[in-house]
Amino acid sequence: MSPKKITWKSVILRCYKAEQSALPESKKPVLKQGSFQRLSLSDLSSPGSQLSIDDLSNSQVTSNLHVFTLGELREITHNFSPCNLLGEGGFGPVYKGFIDDNKLRPGLKAQPVAVKLLNLDGLQGHREWLAEIIFLGQLRHPHLVKLIGYCSEDEQRLLVYEYMPRGSLENQLFRRYSAALPWSTRMKIALGAAKGLAFLHEADKPVIYRDFKASNILLDSDYNAKLSDFGLAKDGPEGDEAYVLTSIMGTKGYAAPEYVMNGHLTTMSDVYSFGVVLLELLTGKRSMDKIRPSRQHSLVEWARPLLKDPRKLDRVIDPRLEGQFSTKGAQKAAALAYKCLSHHPKPRPMMSDVVKVLELLQGFDDSLVGPFVYVVANENGSTDCVGKDESEENGHYHQGCIQRFGWRQRSRLPMSLVAYTDSALYNNFRNGLN
Ligand SMILES: Nc1ncnc2c1ncn2[C@@H]1O[C@H](COP(=O)(O)OP(=O)(O)OP(=O)(O)O)[C@@H](O)[C@H]1O
Ligand SMILES: [Mg+2]
User: Are residues 183 and 320 in the same domain?
Assistant: First the structure.
């Protein structure tokens, strides 16, 4: 028999349990029950703070959550049947289940659920499970996925969420053999996800989500977007601190440059990741794809320079849309993505401003109406507008002439092949519980 693999996760778990039992009852932390002050993960992982799962289940943190037994979760997922498998990520497999009348308890209705099961041999572990419970147990918002409950038995760690019928944005946007997501749906998803991030950033104690990407945006039957996966979330900087200095975790292709370079984490790191997802929505291309020509492996490196020039947008916009999108809307969305993807954090907009811009873009549909703008080269080779788009003058975006007709052309670009991003966590665990 091969020796059992020792992972950082199991070490943490053992230390956690050992410290807990070593501490006298009187020294264990008492969670505030009455006044609502969001409990942070650092309250649990700071030295000298030992919180047992029993303490957790009696606290304000989990008052919204149901505690399930492993037996119950086995039953509702048909013993974690492969037929019920919805997908698998770094935490472990996710199964569909149904809470029926037999499992009901006060406050729990019959409903489909998604059950996430920790892979005990994987890179994630108890800390991510706990982070999910601590953040999602306390934060409720229409654009955050609802955590219904959890299970902890021996080393097993499970999470039970509301079931999101349309799965992840990643599945919807990059699926090969189905109709492309319409423009208006893409803008709706961008707005929903932006509202979720804005809520986190504007909380009394701001939260940095740290893993904003297409696979973590889940969709309900009406394409309302909800953020899932708070395993890497962090509390924002406190006091005079400009950033949180932390180990580098996240997904390649989405993480902000300053965070990857030196571990400086701020809410602006999330804004950058939002820019990457917005770019994925505009282009229909994955943030990283080794199957593309080498110049285009990184979507941001390739597409960002094109975003600031409206005349180059036809090279960027997803050809699968076949011209069915709002020209003005696409320009504004591209300008927004460009700002979010600023190399330095300062010029990036706050998420509340991103929400405002995206709200203006909802229902924008000038793809079939409005005059064309003709572009004629003059003697010195520059271009003049001949036909004039009046509505453009009233808009905020006014950067030269727009070759609107170009965007209605059928696809000139080959459809991007499906390839999977390297969603493995690139991390350094020097800081252990960070
Ligand atoms: N609440 C849910 N409802 C419906 N499907 C879900 C739900 N949660 C997750 N899924 C499905 O399970 C898949 C795996 O999700 P998970 O969050 O574990 O991994 P991931 O986001 O793909 O990868 P990573 O570990 O890098 O975050 C998702 O892509 C989605 O299709
Ligand atoms: Mg995920």
Answer: yes
